[in-house]
Each structure stands twice: as structure tokens, then as C-alpha cells.
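Researcher: Let's do a round of design. I'm pasting the C-alpha cells now; please hold your answer until I've finished.
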């Protein structure tokens, strides 16, 4: 099973203090760009992968979605999502998204915010999502930008002969990364932009939009500390069609 760091009490407490946890979508700086990638919600059946506190699930209902399924591995996240949701057509399920089984053509939109970089077998998940979407259904998601998930520290791989070759955490070396974020020992999966794009294509998707998010001038004026994000984008945003 994937690492369930969000149910760790210390991590959950720290995560709950983040701006995006307290303010929801309005507290996520990349939300305006991500929102612009979404289709009209009117009449849509929506799947939210890594739904967290349910902010997006509630937003799509207000925007006209007819049903929403939110999936998350964290029981703590789901407890809060259920406590803050009073809508019979929003369903929250606890599941490991790496092992989802979904009925064919059961959704019109699949959405995922900052979750897929925890998934080890992304190819399998993308095939599952493509099959679950109606014809021309949309998949919109964000992940930690690969530039961000490939840290700069140089940890060289040492061969049996004693020779050193490429750093294990180089950009082009994909795989597991263990980092300290809120608490020590958070496991993520690093993959290149090409891996995300080609994974979508191989699963049958047509890429519609790709954005490497960075703060606008207006956002920097309001939050000067975000200026540091200009030198490397923290988020990769993508929209694709089944």
C-alpha cells in the first residue's frame, strides 16, 4: 500500500495549518490556472482523486456537477471532508488509488490535485482512468513539478568497482524520492515531464494543455515570498481528453 503519511498525527497537524488547508481552493496559488483548464461543470459526473478535505468536491457541486466521488487513502482527511459536506450526491471513499477498479465510462471528469506524484505505477492508473471516462471526457490534474521533485543535492551512485556515476536524484533518474516536508521521511515518486506526457498518450489520452505554474506579478505583490518560485516552477498542471 502507498505511504499514508496524511494519517500520521504530526504530519496531519502540520498539513492542516497550510494556507491551502485552511482556505481551500482560494488558498491554493495555482488554482486560478487549474480552474481555467476545467470544462463547464453542468451535468458532469466527477471523480476527485486525492480529495483531501473535499474542497474541490464541494466546489464542483456548486458549479453544477450532478455527482461527485472523492477518493483518498487518509481516514483523517475523509473524516473532515465528510464533516464539512452536507450533500447526498457527494460520496467519499477510502481507497488506494493505485488499485482502483472503476466502471467503464462512469465519469465525465477526473480531477486530481497534487496526488499523482505519490503513485508508483502511474501507467496502470492512467489506463484505468481513461477507461472510466466517457467519450471526450476530461482529465485535469496537478503534480509537484519534476524540477522540484529532483532535489539539487548530489548523491552519487557508487558501483561495485568503486566508480561513481550519475547522482541518484538527477532529473533524468526517475523513481522514489524521500524528502522532509512538514515531517521527515515523506516518500514521493519523481518522473520527468516527458513521462507524464507520454504516459497520457500511451493510455489513449489527447493532451490539451500543459502549464508550468509560477506566480503572476499580482500574486508576488500580494505575497512577496512567492517571488522565490520564479526560478523553478513548483507545480506542473495538465489537461487531457479521453
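Researcher: That's everything. Go ahead.
Model: Designed sequence:
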Amino acid at each position: 500500500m502507498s505511504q499514508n503519511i496524511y494519517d500520521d498525527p504530526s504530519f496531519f497537524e502540520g498539513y492542516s495549518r497550510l494556507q491551502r488547508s485552511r482556505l481551500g481552493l482560494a488558498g491554493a496559488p495555482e488554482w486560478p490556472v487549474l480552474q481555467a483548464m476545467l470544462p463547464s461543470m453542468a451535468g458532469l459526473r466527477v471523480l476527485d482523486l486525492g480529495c483531501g478535505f473535499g474542497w474541490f468536491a464541494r466546489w464542483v457541486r456548486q458549479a453544477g456537477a450532478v455527482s461527485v466521488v472523492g477518493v483518498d487513502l487518509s481516514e483523517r482527511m475523509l473524516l473532515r471532508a465528510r464533516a464539512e459536506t452536507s450533500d447526498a450526491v457527494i460520496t467519499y471513499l477510502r481507497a488506494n488509488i493505485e488499485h482502483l477498479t472503476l466502471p467503464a465510462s462512469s465519469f465525465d471528469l477526473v480531477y486530481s490535485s497534487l496526488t499523482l506524484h505519490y503513485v508508483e505505477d502511474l501507467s496502470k492508473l492512467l489506463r484505468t482512468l481513461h477507461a472510466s471516462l466517457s467519450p471526450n471526457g476530461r482529465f485535469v490534474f496537478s503534480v509537484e513539478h519534476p524540477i522540484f521533485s529532483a532535489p539539487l543535492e548530489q548523491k552519487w551512485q557508487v558501483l561495485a568497482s568503486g566508480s561513481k556515476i550519475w547522482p541518484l536524484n538527477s532529473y533524468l533518474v526517475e523513481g522514489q524520492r524521500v524528502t522532509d516536508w512538514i515531517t521527515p521521511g515523506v516518500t514521493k515518486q519523481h518522473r520527468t515531464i516527458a513521462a507524464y506526457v507520454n504516459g497520457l498518450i500511451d493510455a489513449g489520452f489527447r493532451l490539451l494543455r500543459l502549464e508550468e505554474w509560477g506566480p503572476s506579478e499580482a500574486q508576488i505583490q500580494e505575497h512577496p515570498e512567492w517571488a522565490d518560485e520564479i526560478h523553478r516552477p513548483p507545480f506542473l498542471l495538465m489537461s487531457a481528453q479521453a
